[in-house]
Amino acid sequence: MTDQVKYLLDESELPTHWYNIVADLPERPPRPLHPRTHQPMTAREMTSLSAIGLLEQDGSTQRYIEIPSVVRDIYRLWRPTPLFRARALERLLDTPARIYYKYEGVSPTGSHKVNTAVPQVFYNKAAGIERLTTETGAGQWGAALAFACAQFGVGCEVWWTGSSYDQKPYRKVLMEAFGATVHRSPSAVTETGRRAQADGNTRGSIGLAVSEAVEVALADPAVGYALGSTAGHVLLHQTVIGEEALKQFALADDYPDVLISCVGGGSSMGGLAFPFLREKLTGGRDIRALAVEPTACPALTRGRYAWDHGDSQGLTPLMKMYTVGHAFVPEAIHAGGLRYHGMSPLISYAYHTGLIEAVAKSQRECFTAGVRFAAAEGILPAPESNHAVAACLDEAERCRETGAAKTILLLVTGHAHFDLSAYQSFRDGTLTDAELPDERLRTFLDQLPAVSA
Ligand SMILES: *Cc1c(COP(=O)(O)O)cnc(C)c1O
User: Fold this and answer.
1) CB 390 within 8 A of CB 299
2) Whose CA is nearest to atom 13 of ligand 1?
3) Which segments constitute the Tryptophan synthase beta chain-like PALP domain (predicted)?
4) Which pLDDT band, with edges at 50, 70 and 90, does 339 fall under?
5) How much is the pLDDT for 332?
């Protein structure tokens, strides 16, 4: 039986500023390069894709950036989100560890993605953009952007990775209910999509869906492109998660020894970890930050820290990041939000310099952990979140063996109410774990662009 404790913040404690970790890093992480000339991107070149307000945030070295009041008003629909002490889970695991989880599934679309969708639409609308295009992996980002576009009366067009589109039909209904147009990627409406279809690519990948959305946005100045993870401004917007968690730990009179989040592009990890890393970087308490990725798409643990494109066709700027190569097409795992070949440059830099650690988990282990968590806590985590849950169970088990009463902070990025087909495959025993042999990985790493910068 659960006797969970909840740490709730009052609406008045909703953060007023986002935190920019660049201000506290010892040096500035490498900035993007032009995809063909390999020279630093100019502001003018960047505005063909992103709104100026967001580009200013990407380039900013200011420590705090004020959250516009319109954005805060919309955040109030679901923020501040709760922090729970998972007592039932602790008992189930018979661990001396204290486990807390921050739950982002209370948002209008069921994940943390809306934290950045709302400000992105706000800044695009301010720049005169009438319609936004985007890609989506699991459908979470597409749904979040569709919601935010509906709030501001901006059009929304989504290219959705084919393999996930087929797995989660109800999330399409949600996107369409918010007024968005949804394409299965590869689609017949872009040059990129038609070429991929002709090549016999049916499953698609996030990188390919990015290429389709970017192609359409580049063709029309009234159309902008929004991205759901990896960019500096996305991680910036997500820091409301960590800022709230810091206040909630003060209420609990406790402090995490380790924090854990899954990583696809790294936005939830950055959002949770950066405010805690600020404390560490500015002389406050130490903390371990653990990023958990799928073994099917192991950018941090088996990829290379190199210059690479954000999309499969090489249309986006080059970013210095951990990557398994932009041509990589991962297995159709159910954690669609973690099937991205690259990683946020900020998370990549933090990992490269030892500020965060990483581990990879297979999907069956993750679903096993997810159902244990659900039985104890009454929340069915999204397949992506299960990766963090699995790593949390490992930490708790280690505490049981050593008797160490550590404090663990787990981020549950979303719920699985639109991902039940994944849990069904898990129960049916049809969920598989494919190996990723070194030779296969190497064929993609060998295709990384040669940059002499
Ligand atoms: C998109 C998504 C992720 C992965 O993206 P990050 O940018 O790494 O946070 C994780 N969990 C859920 C529920 C998602 O929708």
Assistant:
1) no
2) 414
3) 77-414
4) confident
5) 78
Tens-digit pLDDT profile for residues 61-105? 999 999 999 999 999 999 999 999 999 999 999 999 999 999 999
Residue 386 beta carbon below 6 angstroms from any ligand 1 atom: no
| Spatial distance between the Cα atoms of 111 and 404, rounded to a whole number of angstroms | 32
Nearest CA to ligand 1 atom 4: 264
Amino acid identity of 290? L
For ligand 1, say whether the CB of 267 is within 6 Å of any of its atoms.
yes
Report whether 127 contacts 224 (CB < 8 A): yes
- Separation of CA 268 and ligand 1 centre (Å): 6
- The DSSP annotation for 244-313 comes to HHHHHHHHHT---SEEEEE-SSSHHHHHHHHHHHHHHHTTS---EEEEEEETTS-HHHHSEEEEEESSTT
Interval between CA 263 and ligand 1 midpoint (Å):
7
Number of H helices, E strands in the chain: 19, 15
- Unique residue bearing structure tokens 């009041």: 69
Q: What's the pLDDT tens digit per position in 211-270? A: 999 999 999 999 999 999 999 999 999 999 999 999 999 999 999 999 999 999 999 999
The reported pLDDT for the residue numbered 335 is 81
Q: Which helix (H) or strand (E) holds 345?
A: helix 345-352
- Whether ligand 1 lies within 6 angstroms of the CB of 332 is answered as no
Domains in the chain: ranges and CATH: 6-13+80-110+232-446 (3.40.50.1100), 17-21+48-64+113-225 (3.40.50.1100)
Cα(236) to ligand 1 centroid in Å equals 15
pLDDT at residue 331 in the model: 82
R_g (Cα) of the chain, nearest Å: 20
